[in-house]
Design goal:
6-stranded mixed sheet, alpha+beta, kinase, 429 residues, Put_sensor_dom, Heat Shock Protein 90, ATP-binding, 63% helix
Length: 429
């Protein structure tokens, strides 16, 4: 697979020269710009958290919880839950924009679908969950990381503080002289690159959660099933197979018969001890076997790479032929039935072809997962999106092939991307 510049912070962290690139500064900018928003949201949660702690302490000590406090907590909790899907709209929109600091992959905006949709769609509640994540967990983690940074700063400047007569109390020692504090300062300097990478890891974790919760693609409204008539498809496939077989029989078969006859006549004219006898015999046998081979191809068309490499290897071979970087992840714990394997191969081939021709993508990803009851294929790209089965035969052709295998195809391709094609194929043992 072709290497390319990292498109998001998680990729950049795996590069040896990460610390010397601009990605650490982008991570730092992402963390610093998170502080004001997370701080405001955490204050809102503290209004309810402080009375909750008081009520918990009273219950643990066996004292009755005041009725006013119980009413306040109940009303406050219901109010927060009721307002979260609405408050998350501007926060989610801003966070999708801000995510560009650590992730160059476009995260499309989720259109406003009405007030009812804010309480009935999975997308809205995922945005609300991100609101609680940003106001609840993020401040606590940031506070812990800030304490580590301050402790490292104290270690570095401890010789100067001790030299000025200040008492420096560390967790494990209390140096009395500047000389005693020097080893601590050395440890602090050595910890700087560790914290530099840790800041990147922290930004990566937050960005990953943000992308997972704020993407609109997996929602039921965005993933729409492309269904076709299974009976019609099977009949059409069988009719096409018979047409090809008939064409071969009427066109190629007479020529092969004539060729075989001519070679047989030539063998009769050539003495058995002639040097040309053996090549003619081999050619005669090959001509007779060619029609058998063509019939086998028509009966069940199957790429040779599937036989030689298996599904995962064949898909990786397809990925290597695409003009953009394609990552392949395969989790196949058992052999896949041949019909399912062939269908999956052509699905990936057609989907990657569409990505290369139409998506204007910079990278793509293929996942093959054995769920225990079936095979799930997911092809995603960071292209411009907007794929529509009504505008061409490519996607409907895929749906035809999948439906003939008793599977289903689902598509998520909002304008601006990303595009996700998910195919679920049953594997009946």
């Amino acid at each position: 697979m072709t290497s390319a510049a990292p498109t998001h912070l998680a990729q950049a962290l795996r590069q040896p020269r990460y610390a010397l690139t601009g990605w650490p500064w982008r991570a730092l900018a992402y963390l610093l710009t998170s502080v004001p928003l997370a701080g405001v949201l955490s204050l809102g949660l503290l209004v309810l958290l402080a009375p909750l702690v008081a009520a918990t302490n009273a219950a643990r000590q066996g004292r009755p919880v005041p009725l006013a406090l119980t009413v306040f907590l109940t009303v406050g909790a219901l109010l927060i839950v009721a307002l979260a899907p609405l408050l998350s709209v501007p926060v989610a929109a801003f966070e999708r924009y801000r995510l560009g600091l650590v992730d160059d992959r476009h995260l499309p905006a989720v259109p406003w679908l009405g007030l009812v949709a804010r309480y009935t769609t999975g997308t809205a509640w995922r945005e609300a969950a991100y609101l609680f994540f940003l106001g609840g967990l993020v401040p606590a983690v940031y506070w812990l990381f800030t304490m580590l940074v301050l402790l490292d700063a104290v270690l570095i400047v401890s010789p100067f503080l001790v030299a000025n007569g200040d008492q420096v109390v560390l967790l494990w020692a209390t140096p009395d002289t500047a000389v005693e504090a020097v080893p601590h300062a050395i440890v602090g300097v050595l910890l700087v690159p560790v914290l530099w990478y840790a800041a990147g890891a922290l930004a990566t974790a937050q960005g990953t959660v943000a992308r997972w919760l704020l993407r609109g693609a997996p929602d039921g409204l965005a993933l729409r099933e492309v269904t076709r008539s299974r009976a019609r498809l099977v009949d059409a496939y069988e009719a096409e197979r018979r047409r090809i077989e008939r064409d071969l029989h009427d066109g190629a078969h007479p020529r092969l018969t004539s060729l075989s006859l001519q070679i047989g006549l030539a063998r009769l004219d050539v003495p058995q001890d002639s040097p040309a006898a053996r090549p003619l015999a081999v050619a005669h046998e090959q001509a007779k076997g060619l029609m058998v081979l063509l019939r086998q191809i028509v009966q069940g068309i199957r790429p040779q790479s599937l036989t030689d490499l298996g599904l995962a290897g064949a898909v990786r071979e397809l990925a290597d032929e695409v003009t953009i970087p394609v990552e392949v992840y395969a989790d196949l714990r058992r052999p896949v039935p041949e019909t399912v394997e062939t269908t999956a191969y052509f699905v990936v081939s057609e989907a990657l072809g569409n990505v290369a021709r139409h998506a204007e993508a910079t990278r793509a990803e293929v996942r093959l997962t054995d769920t225990g009851t079936g095979l799930v294929i997911e092809i995603s790209d960071d292209g411009r999106g907007g794929a529509d089965p009504a505008r061409g035969t490519g996607l409907t052709g895929l749906a035809d092939r999948v439906a003939a295998a008793e599977g289903r195809l689902l598509l998520a391709s909002p304008p601006g991307g990303p595009t996700v094609v998910r195919v679920e194929l049953p594997c009946n043992a």
